[in-house]
Structure formats: structure tokens, C-alpha cells
Design brief:
Number of helices: 27
Radius of gyration: 28 Å
Oligomer: single chain
Protein name: 6-hydroxymethylpterin diphosphokinase MptE-like protein
Shape: globular
Organism: Marinomonas arenicola
Largest sheet: 10 strands, mixed
Pfam families: Maf_flag10_N, MptE-like
InterPro entries: Maf_N, MptE-like
Mean pLDDT: 93
Structural class: alpha/beta
Strand content: 5-15%
Number of strands: 22
């Protein structure tokens, strides 16, 4: 928050020096009261948040120009802008800013649309819930100002705490997230405000307050997303955002938060998907090998120095295909998804092929390929993959996909039987195949990675994949997929310009960047983006014609043999010898669904009551993570999150709180219908292998 009249002239500077000296005198005059407030606050934090106490008990601020205004409020001179943090009345100024912010609130937003012609029960009930929403909203006026109760709020900057005081004086908040990069500001807040009523407001069941102090701007969003998993992602798209003051750190934190918003509101998963993953994983397990980490010494160190090309099917694959042919003998090639059909047309055989999408359509593309061609390739995937995938490859393997019910089943069952193997979960392997490819690169320990055709977007809606891919026939779209009517996001291009992409492409790029940040901490790791697509932070842009690979020729089969031996093992017998129904524990699943149908009675009349109920249900699901029934949490959490979000969206969208809440019970009733049906579907878990359709066979030019 900048001073409303920042000193610029010599006269103003002299005037400020006088005011500052007077302000220091006031601090000395009120030293005892300020010290008592500091000691009271520190004793409070020592009791309820000792980690904050420990951080500030010996803290020495670097910003020394703290002073007291005539009104009795503290102010801080900011050297970075050569102006005070506040005007001469900090509290009054803070109250004005908060009231202005509440009148025109800045909130996160998500709009879900109905999905037609989808076989899942999740989509059926989501569509039904949206139909009920459309009917129930009739006659209701839209909410304009921020209501008195806020489900979730994020403050970018605490400053000295005055705005936080003003905000909580007129708002009730369920989950409050406080980001303050400048530790000096928080330190001085211990003298400026009384923290006790603030912390007491969140000392009731279901209210949470989270401090992110001294955290780098990018790290804030990462930690915030972790906290969302505990508090419930369903509140993420209905969150009040407030910027307390402008600073490079706050600006960076906001920019990163916006850029990574898709990670908060996408990829929640849903019930049918999790059930399909269980069915397919259990059928696949006897026919492949399971990834196990045996330590870095299990693989000869020279293997890590072999350059790896991750090949996507984006339009820029065409620009670098001659380079791939030139260096083929010196590098390891990983093909991603539909890229394998394109490479076959171009006369290139990859060493490794990866796929992650669990639908049968994923494996239908192999029907266009000769078995002799596939026999030369190592097929890698994850434990939710369609079981037919592993039948196409002579050699195959799968790792575990985090957050999946099948992963929880395998791990819990193995541990229960005394199996201590370190089975691999590939973090950041979502949402598309390039993410899985990089996850395997991390597992295998490769040091040099080149991306080609991993565009995460396109410059022209008509040129969204390689012209040699199955998406085109005779230079025109084959009818398999088109982006002409898609809502697209603009992003900076790897070589400049603008790239357009979908939400899932954006999420893929964000996930690639997140894993790249980890890999860049590893000594000797380098990655290069040869793709004329979206820029990836942390990956060096490099034109294909500038690539210089001087490595010797490699024995590709030997490398694959070594990787297979070092990182894969036979699946646990304890899983193979039990039925899906016994593994899932259907009766325990039924008890949980019955619990989730309870609680919405005549006492639920406010937004706060709805949020409290949904939060309690979320916690009931969330706490299953630490039990032998972790897979039940994985089965339920996605569809619960979608349904809870639709309810939250409805009750906050309309001005008449009581009426909106009363009508929202009709949405909850639809969710209960779904919960009622779920146990019978779980009972039939082994039948939930995706049967697919003829869309790819009909339209894909494989």
C-alpha cells in the first residue's frame, strides 16, 4: 500500500524527516505499551504456533525506519519506493481499502459445463446437478458485494496487520491464507496489532488460518496447493483474493498463483475413473513388470549420460524430424502417445513408448502398426492403463500413478503382507504423455533431455499436430479431433510470439515446469526445448539446427535391458491371489457413503453451515489416507470435490442467503443419489474395464 501522497520534492522530504523524528519520539513515549503488546503476542504464538515464535524470538529486522503517527498507529518507511507504507492514518486508510475491496471483490472463478454423450455415472450426476442448478436459480438475484461469510480468502501481504484487522471486523472466514514475504512486516505487526482475537476467531472447529511467512513467491503457491488438499479443493474456485500492498514479491506471487491456477481447479479425478483404474490395473498386473527403485547404484553410471529425446506429436515435430534421423544412433528416443504412429510413417523406431490415458482408445492406435515394429519397442505406462496395452509389447513395465485407488490397493496390500519393496510412484506424470515421459527420465536418472514436438499449444488452430500424424489426411483434418471451437489460452512461445493452448495443455506445461525445477537442482542436468510451442521455464530454448550432439553411438537394446533390470520387478503375489471385491472392502466402502449422506437437516440455513458440513465430509474422506482404506478415499474424493464445488458455487452466487441455501439442498440430494448407487458399482469393480468406441478406428489416419 503506497502512501497516498509520496514525498517527491525537497520540501516534502524535509517535512517527512521532521514527521519521522516526531514519530520516533512517540514510539519512545509508548515503548511500554508496545513492548507489552509484543510480549503478549509472542506468548500467544508460543502457545498455539510455536514455530512462528521460534522464528521471531531472536529476530532482528533489516528495515529500521518504524515510527508512530500522531493517531497512534505504526508506520514503516519503505526504502524500495522511498515512501511510507501508509499515509498518516494507517488504520483508517486500511479500512477504506478493505471496504473498497469488499465492494468489488476479486475472486477465483470456475465454470463447469455439462458433458454430453459420456457413459460415466459421475458425468450423469454432474449433469443432473447442473440441471437442478439451472432450475433452482430462477428468481434469485446475483450476489454483487462479498457476503459477510467467506469460505476461503488469500491475503497477498499482511503488512502491519491493519488491513487484516479491518477485514475480519466485517467478515467471517472459514479458511484464511496469509502470505507475507517480508518478515520485517510481520515482526512489526507483533507491536502494531493484537493477534489474539484474530487467532481466536479461527480456534473453532472447521476454521483454519495458515501463515506463509518469508516464503519465496513461487513457493507460496506450491505450499498453498498442498494445504488445499487438506482443506478441500472444492473451495479453491470460490476464494477471495486481496492484495494488501504492492511489492515485487507480491506481484510475483500473484503472477505465479494465476499461472498455476489450473492445478487448483483441474485434475480432481472422479469415481468411475478411479474404478476403471482398479479394474484395469488388476488385470494388467499379471502381464507386466512393476517399477521398483533399487538405488542409483543398480544402474551403471554411464547410462545417465546418454542423451534422451522426448518426442511429442505437436506441429513442431515436423521441423526437427531430420535432426532425429541424424542423431538416432547416438540418443535414446521416447515417443509419447500418438507420436508412435507418426514416427512409423517417417521410418523411425523409438526405443521406449509411453502412454498414460486409461481409455481403450489409447491402445486402438496400435492396430495401425505392425507387430514386428512394436516388438522392437519397450512399452511403459502406469497402473491405470488399459490391460490391452501390455499385450502389444514384448517387453513392458508400469509404475504407480499417485492419487489413484489402484496404487493405494497395491501398496497397502503389499505392506500388509510384509512386502517392503520400494515401488515407484511417478509424481508429476499427469495430465498428458510428455509428463509421464519426463517422470520416467527422472526415475532413470538421465542428465540430458531434448524436447521435440512437445508444443503444449499451437500457433494456428488448423495446425495442432504433426502434418504426418493421424490427425490429418491429405493435408486436412481427419475428423478425429479439431480445436476450431475450443476456448484457448495465450502463452509466450518458446522462440517468441504467441502460442494458443487448451487447459489440459496448460496444465501439462505447468507440471513439466514443476518437475524441471526439481531436476535442475541435480548436478549436471540439462534440458533443451527444440519445440516451436509454448515456452517452458527452466528449459533452455534451442533451435533444432543449433543442436550439436557429439556423443558416441549407443547400443539401444543394452540400455533398455539395463533399465529394465535396474528399475522393474515382478508384481506382488499378494495382489494377484485376491478378488477385486475382497481387495476393495465393499462393506467398508458402503459405510463411508452412508456417512456422507448425513448432516443436511433443518439446522443448515446459512452458507457457513453448508461449508462446515461439506468440510466435515471432506475430512471424513481425507482421513482415510492414513488407513488401510486409502483406496476408498481415492475412489470418493474426486466426485465429492466436483459435487461440493457445485453446491458452494450455487450458495455464494446469489444474494438471498437463506433461500439459496434452502434450494441448494436439492443439489445435495443429487449427490446423495450418486452415493446410494456407488456401492453396487464397486461390487462389480472387475467389470469396469473400458470398452471403448469406434471413434479412433473410424477417424484416425494411423
Amino acid at each position: 500500500m503506497l502512501n497516498e501522497s509520496s514525498p517527491a520534492s525537497v520540501e516534502q522530504t524535509e517535512e517527512f524527516i521532521l514527521l519521522f523524528s516526531q514519530g520516533l519520539a512517540r514510539i519512545k513515549e509508548h515503548d511500554q505499551a508496545l513492548t507489552e503488546r509484543y510480549l503478549k503476542n509472542m506468548a500467544l504464538f508460543a502457545s498455539v504456533m510455536p514455530h512462528i515464535y521460534d522464528e521471531f524470538v531472536h529476530f532482528q529486522p533489516t528495515k529500521k525506519h518504524i515510527y508512530m503517527e500522531a493517531c497512534g498507529d505504526l508506520n514503516l518507511f519503505r526504502e524500495d519506493i522511498a515512501a511510507p507504507l501508509f499515509s498518516q492514518q494507517p488504520r483508517a486508510q486500511s479500512e477504506r481499502k478493505i471496504l473498497s475491496s469488499l465492494a468489488s471483490p476479486n475472486k477465483t472463478f470456475l465454470n463447469l459445463d455439462k458433458t454430453d454423450n459420456h457413459p460415466s455415472r459421475h458425468v450423469f450426476y454432474s449433469n443432473k446437478m447442473m440441471d437442478v442448478m439451472a432450475e433452482q436459480k430462477k428468481g434469485l438475484e446475483k450476489q454483487k458485494e462479498l457476503p459477510a461469510f467467506v469460505g476461503s480468502a488469500v491475503f497477498f501481504g499482511i503488512e502491519l496487520g491493519y488491513q487484516l484487522e479491518a477485514f475480519l471486523a466485517c467478515q467471517d472466514v472459514k479458511h484464511l491464507y496469509l502470505y507475507e514475504c517480508d518478515l520485517d512486516c510481520f515482526y512489526y505487526s507483533l507491536f502494531a496489532i493484537d493477534w489474539q482475537p484474530i487467532l481466536e476467531a479461527f480456534n473453532s472447529d472447521g476454521r483454519t488460518i495458515h501463515f506463509f511467512l518469508g516464503v519465496e513467491p513461487e513457493e507460496f503457491t506450491e505450499r498453498y496447493i498442498l494445504q488445499l488438499a487438506e482443506n478441500g479443493y472444492f473451495m479453491a474456485p470460490e476464494t477471495f483474493l486481496h492484495v494488501a500492498y504492492g511489492s515485487p514479491e507480491n506481484d510475483s506471487a500473484i503472477a505465479y498463483f494465476q499461472k498455476h491456477y489450473a492445478r487448483q481447479v483441474m485434475g480432481w479425478g472422479f469415481f468411475d475413473d478411479a474404478l476403471i483404474g482398479i479394474a484395469q490395473g488388476l488385470r494388467s498386473l499379471p502381464n507386466t513388470r512393476l517399477a521398483e527403485f533399487k538405488g542409483r547404484d543398480a544402474l551403471p553410471k554411464w547410462v545417465a549420460d546418454v542423451p534422451v529425446f522426448i518426442l511429442g506429436n505437436g506441429p513442431s515435430l515436423d521441423q526437427g524430424i531430420e535432426l532425429v534421423k541424424e542423431v538416432r544412433d547416438q540418443v535414446l528416443l521416447i515417443s509419447c502417445g500418438s507420436t508412435i504412429n507418426t514416427l512409423k510413417k517417417l521410418g523411425i523406431t523409438p526405443d521406449i513408448h509411453v502412454d498414460i490415458e486409461r481409455m481403450k482408445q489409447t491402445v486402438d492406435k496400435f492396430l495401425f502398426l505392425d507387430q514386428d515394429y512394436l516388438d522392437q519397442i519397450w512399452g511403459l505406462s502406469v497402473d491405470v492403463m488399459h490391460p490391452e496395452y501390455f499385450q502389444y509389447f514384448k517387453r513392458s513395465g508400469m509404475a504407480m500413478k499417485p492419487g489413484e485407488a489402484i496404487t493405494s490397493l497395491i501398496l497397502n496390500q503389499a505392506r500388509a503382507q510384509g512386502d517392503t519393496k520400494d515401488y515407484v510412484q511417478l509424481n508429476f506424470c499427469n495430465p498428458v504423455v510428455a509428463n509421464l515421459a519426463l517422470s520416467y527420465v527422472q526415475l532413470f536418472g538421465f542428465n540430458t533431455v531434448y524436447y521435440l514436438g512437445v508444443d503444449n499449444g499451437f500457433k494456428d488452430k488448423g495446425s495442432h499436430h504433426s502434418i504426418h500424424s493421424g490427425y490429418y489426411k491429405d493435408g486436412k483434418e481427419s475428423g478425429f479431433q479439431s480445436f476450431q471451437d475450443a476456448t484457448l489460452i495465450e502463452r509466450e512461445g518458446n522462440f517468441g510470439g504467441v502460442i494458443y493452448g487448451t487447459n489440459i495443455m496448460e496444465t501439462s506445461r505447468v507440471q513439466l515446469e514443476s518437475l524441471t525445477r526439481q531436476l535442475n537442482k541435480r548436478r549436471g542436468f540439462n534440458s533443451y526445448n527444440l519445440s516451436d510451442g509454448a515456452k517452458m521455464e527452466g528449459v533452455e530454448p534451442l533451435q533444432p539446427e543449433d543442436v550439436m550432439i557429439l556423443d558416441p553411438k549407443v547400443d539401444h537394446k543394452q540400455i533398455v535391458d539395463l533399465l529394465d533390470k535396474a528399475f522393474f520387478t515382478e508384481p506382488p503375489e499378494s495382489i494377484l491371489n485376491q478378488t477385486p471385491e475382497a481387495l476393495i472392502s465393499v462393506e467398508d466402502f458402503r459405510k463411508v457413503t452412508q456417512l456422507l449422506m448425513q448432516g443436511w437437516d433443518d439446522s443448515v440455513t446459512s452458507r457457513a453451515a453448508v461449508c462446515d458440513l461439506l468440510w466435515s465430509h471432506h475430512r471424513s474422506i481425507y482421513f482415510l489416507k492414513g488407513s488401510v482404506h486409502r483406496h476408498i478415499q481415492d475412489l470418493l474424493i474426486g466426485s465429492f470435490t466436483y459435487s461440493a464445488f457445485l453446491i458452494i458455487k450455487f450458495i455464494f452466487e446469489y444474494e438471498d442467503e437463506a433461500e439459496a441455501v434452502r434450494r441448494a439442498q436439492n443439489l445435495f440430494a443429487v449427490w446423495c443419489e450418486f452415493l446410494e448407487e456407488m456401492p453396487s458399482l464397486v461390487q462389480q469393480a472387475s467389470d469396469f474395464v473400458d470398452q471403448g468406441n469406434d471413434h479412433l478406428i473410424t477417424f484416425y489416419n494411423g
